[in-house]
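Researcher: We're teaching a course module on how sequence relates to structure. For the next exercise, students receive a sequence and then see the predicted structure as tokens, so they can try to spot secondary structure elements on their own. Here is the exercise chain.
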Amino acid sequence: MENEIRKDYLLDRWVIIAAERAKRPSDFKVEASPRDVGKVCPFCPGNEEMTPPATLLYLEKEGKLLRDRDSGGTRRSDWIVRCFPNRYPAVKPETKEVKAVDNEMLYRTRAYGFHEVIVESPVHDEQPSKMRLKQLRYSLMAQIERAAAFYRDPSIRYVQIFRNYRREAGASLSHPHSQIIATEHIPKILTEEVKSSKTYMEKEGRCVFCDIIEVEKESSRLIYESKHFVALAPWASIQPFEFWILPKKHSANLLKITDEELDELSRILKAGLRALSEVLGDPPYNYVFHTAPKYPRGIEKFYHWHLEVYPKLAVWAGFEIGTGMYINVTPPEVAAESLKAEIKKCL
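Model: And here is the predicted structure for the students to work with:
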């Protein structure tokens, strides 16, 4: 296979698939990040005073899930999932309007929003790739529940759920956790996805993501298909071994996922991350949910939520920074073949 340039399904984003520089999975295996040995972990049970009061706690009593929050200056330590405001937020609700600059080129606005941490397990080293399925389901449920709470704020237009694993991918602590940032602004990538999806619907009369699923189900980039989901290596992957999980049923909004679908998503996400770990030696990664923003009207007809997983394997250097293009040294077809073989063992 010769090198070629591919365009993203929707975004005006181009990738050089550098097959002639192709790397094997073993070439990407990295050393484990230093463990937080001897350090007090602020996310472990018993150390709740080191973090802000919880906005949501999941508790389990006699097999039943209960909800609570910290109040009255006390902190509960019998939680199974714990959500609280980030101590160093990128955005926050207590913010003032900023004065406009008298120059139309110099635009700025307030950094209003919410930034929370979701501690996914009380067990310090229980990462999703090896997490109990029930626990992983609880962590995803908490992400969705907090996102729904933020969307009730009339100023919030988009809520980003994301997870950084290992320091190379932006995680400052090793205890399993994810984050949520809710803002007044719809980010550039989501804006482009929504616009392109709408244009495709107007032209073809169909959801572009539904069509992507049908095309990729017949391709060598398909990793796994279940009753409700497909996992695939996207056509124009920007990272080696990048994969997406998409619901087969058309749905714009992650918040409307059913209990059965959430069970299955938990199972596939765990298997996908486990396969990634087995193939690449537990690499750093980021995962991000893309779901419908609050606007525009009619978005439920043409948008389609999905989860994107990005192993942190490539170093984006001068070319990527200067051009906005990417170089991927592992064709997605090759990545899918490796992940497909491994994911079957993990299910």
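Model: If you want an answer key for the exercise: The chain has a mean pLDDT of 95. The chain has one domain: 4-346.
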